[in-house]
Amino acid sequence: MKKLLSIVWLCLWVIPASSQATRKPNVIIILMDDMGYGDTEPYGMTGIPTPNFNKLAKQGTRFTHFNAGQPICTASRTALLTGCYPNRVGMAGALLPTSKIALNPQETTIASMLKRAGYHTSMLGKWHLGNHPPYFPLHYGFDSFYGLPYSHDIWPRDKDGNKITDPANARYTWPELPLIEDDRIADTIKSHHDQELLTTKFTKRAVAYIRGHKNKPFFLYVAQPMPHVPLAVSDKFKGKSGMGIFGDVMMELDWSLGQILKTLDETGLAKNTIVIVASDNGPWLNYGDNAGSSGGFREGKATTFEGGTRVPLLMRWPGKIEAGGINSHLMTNMDILPTIAAATGAHLPQNRIDGLNFLPSLLAGNRTGPREVFYYYSGQNNLDAVRYKNWKLVLPHKSSSYQLLHGVNGNGGKILKIDVPLALYDLAHDPGEAYDVQQLHPDIMKHMQALADSAREDLGDDLTGRAGKNVRKAAVVE
């Protein structure tokens, strides 16, 4: 009898351990808003301590050539969640309360892909792919949502939370900023103090979600509103950085990351959870001391120079992805979806996507990379540049520029509009895009012009009046 009881006890001990080891990995994506390439210590920040970003870099892999699909909110988030160039699915720019489009619910997202694979899915934070139900996250594969429909500066108030009273100001007609739970308005954000609580609210919800779903594979997407302006930080971090409010905000985001990592440790889920931390685009540099750093790359948010699209990416999957690794292969946020599909065994979308599977590269210690080409689009459908390996062909276009007049104390400086000429840059030797070498490399120019023509045929190009053959439509909001 004692022997039988011992066998039963052994089975009870072994079965949970075995099921945990063979369970599909959990997936957590943490997306910062307007966090620049150089805003954390693993990417060169000095003066602002980021111990949890540092920890993640030591335990996982740091990517140095990771690009957002486009350098602005809605478009970039479309690329991340669908694995497509935003213009392929009819999305562009940053949606406003009056916008009449939304991401088509027929598109497959990471959430709907993983939900079909048996995952519970949840989103916290900034959505920005549709302003009203049925264009909130629950209709795109998420089982729950708590957050904002768009950026927290889209409200009828100034940076300090004071009500706009001038009818000539575009913000005058905007509604109060809603805080959404699933498909309903749970609260409204009506003051700067309300905004100061957002990072903490989403962090606490993330921790509770992980603890409440530790027995089933889950996908958690945390899209923090910060460090997008207006900067807002809770009392526990005000004045703590010694680097102004931007430094305080980055310290709180680092704390938030730390809370999530700590919870994974405490629940025993760390080893079987893929953690991905990135930014949607580069820093909004005209806000000066309230903006981040592009890490030395040219320009920032809303431009297709490297400072606009090249963003940080940290990825951890213990025992699978190299600890302390550095991946210097060209990668985009469109590649996250197929990489997650490969890691979880989920089926890829039936519609064409543009992302590539990086999992073999990651499991092999980052020795290879599947991507050689990336198209830099802006606006509705403007092909501004083409990347091929280390080469970048910049095509003639108009661009924003932050060369002059940075703002202070949360006030935005003037954004210049410039004409950008044709140029070829060797990013291996000139990451700042300062030296045009097109005259020295006619063969590269010819090859990259051919790549540009291929993109125009496939996706179109408003700059040359080309309509793409393989584009799909966004949803039209009635």
TrEMBL record:
Domain Sulfatase N-terminal: 25-345
CDD domains assigned to the protein according to its UniProt record, in alphabetical order: GALNS_like
Signal peptide start and end residues: 1-21
GO MF annotations in UniProt: arylsulfatase activity
UniProt keyword terms in alphabetical order: Hydrolase, Signal
Domain of life of the native organism: Bacteria
Pfam family, one: Sulfatase
Family of this protein: Belongs to the sulfatase family.
Protein name: Sulfatase
